[in-house]
Amino acid sequence: MPPSKVEEPKYTEDEPDMPPMGCGIMGKYPVLSVLVFAFAGIGIGVGMSYWEPDNMDDKDTALKWIGLIGDLFIRSLKAVVLPLVFVNVVLSVVDMMQIGRAGSIGWKTIALYILTTVVASIIGIISIVSFRSLFDQGTFEEDGPALVSLGCNADGSYLAEQADGSVMCSSSADTADSQFAITDVTSAFVKSSSGARNDISLSDTIYSGIFTKLVTANIFGAFNSANFAAVVMFAIFFGVALGRVMETQRMEGQSYIVSFFKELDKIFIQLINWIIMITPFAVLSLIIKAIGSREDLKDAFSNVGWLVVATILAMAFHFIIMHIGFWALVTKSNPITYLRCILPAQTMAFACASSAATIPMTLRSVRSTGVVPEAILRFVIPLGATINMDGGAIYFPCACIWMAYLNGIEPDVSSYFLLIIIATIGSAGTAPVPSASLVLIITAYNTVFNAEGTPDGFEFILAIDWFMDRLRTTLNVTGDAMVSGMVASLCPIDEEEDHEGSALKEAPLESPEIEIVEG
After folding, report:
1. Considering all CA atoms of the chain, what is the largest pairwise distance in Å, rounded to the nearest integer?
2. φ, ψ (nearest 5 deg) of residue 304
3. What is the 8-class DSSP label of residue 2?
4. Residue-level pLDDT at 514
5. DSSP 151
6. Closest residue by Cα to residue 32 from 350, 360, 279
7. Are 491 and 105 in contact (CB under 8 A)?
8. How far apart are CA 14 and CA 120, in angstroms?
9. Strand pairing of 167-170 and 158-161?
C-alpha cells in the first residue's frame, strides 16, 4: 500500500505542535528562509575567510560572537534531544506492539538501513576508482627517530653525550649531543597524542565501536556521555518490556508509565519548538563561523580536489539511485514532493554537522509530509541517527583509496571488498556527532593496506573534514527521512490503527477500587 499523497509543508500559528521557524515572513516561507540564510552564511563566511586583520585575535573574537547564536542553538538541542529520543522510541515500540506490528517494522527498518549502507559503500568505491588516473603520488619526508632533551636540576641545563660516551649536564638543548632517541615500547606517547588515534585495530573498532557501545553498563552514564546507540537500544528493550507488562496485566490505556512518558513527550516537543524557531539565524551563525574560521580554503581543496569531486559525485549517485529511484519503486509515489518537505532538515544537517542534533528537525519535516505514521516516525528516525551512516559508508572507502594512491599503493579487488565490509560495519559504530569518523578512516586504511600509524597525507583529510563532514551528515539525515517513508509504505498503518495506538497514551488513568474487609 503506497503512502498517501504528500502535502506541502505548512507551519502556521494555528498548529501548536509545529510553530513557524522564525517570525513574520520567515514563518510563512520556512524552507526558503532557511535556504536564503544558508547561502548568505556561505557568502559571508567565504568573505571572512580572506579577512586578515593586523591582529588575528580580532577575527577570532568576531567569529566567536557571530557563532554565539549557533553554538547556543546546538547546546540547547543537545540538552533536549537525547531524552526526547528515549521517550519517543519507548512510546513508538509500545504503540507498535499494541497494534501487533513491532517485529515487522523493526526488521524491515534494519534491513533497509543495511541495504542503503552497502549500496553507498559500493557507489563510493566505484566513484573514487573512476578518478584513479587523475591522482598523483605524493612525496613525503621520512620520519626520523623521536628525539627528546632531558633537563638537569639547574635551569637551562640539559644532559649531553660527550665524545667518550659519557653523559653530563650541558647548558644547551639545541645541539645534537643533547638530543636522545627514544623507543615508544608501550605506545604511551601515541595514546596520549592530541591527534586522531592511529593504534586501533579493526577488531577493537567492531568490539568497542559497536557491541560495547550498544550495551551500556550504566544507562545514566550513557545519558551523561550522550551515547545515542546505548540509549536507543535500552529504549527499544524498555518499550518491549513495558508493552509485555501491559499485555500480561491487561493494562490497555491505564499504564501510569505510558501516561507519564506522554506528558514528557509533550514537554520536550514544546521545548524543541521554541528552539527551532531561531533555526534561520542559527544556520547563518553556524555556517559563517565554520567557513570564516578557515584561512586556507583554496589550498585545502586544491590538494584533495579530486577526492572531494569523487565523493560528491558518489553522494549524488546514491541520492538519485536510492533516495529517488528506489524510494519511488518501493512507495509507488513521487519522491520529489516528499523531498521538498525535508529541505529544512537537510539544511540544518549541513549547518550543524550532527545527525543527533538534527533529529528534532527531521521529525518535524517528515511529520509535515503527512505520509508517515507517528509510531513509525518516532522509531525509524532516532534509530537511523544511530546506525544509518550512508555518507560515512561512501567517504571511508574514498578517503582510504585516495590515500593509498597518494602513498604509491595500488589497491586490488580484495581491498575493495574489504573496504565495503569495513565501511558497512564501521559506519554503524560511528557516533552521530561532528568529525567522529576520522579514527575509522585510519583504522580502515591500516587494516586494508597492512600499514601502521597515521598514513602520510592524512593531514589533507583533516583539512577538509569540516566540509566533508557536513556533506556526510546531510546525506545521512536524508536517508533517515527516506527510509521512514519506505517503511511506512512496506508496513502500512491506517489512520484508525495509528490513532488507536496514540489513544493508548491518552486514555485517562482510573484509580483502582480497594475493598477493605474486616476480619
Report:
1. 104
2. -125, 30
3. P
4. 36
5. B
6. 279
7. yes
8. 41
9. antiparallel
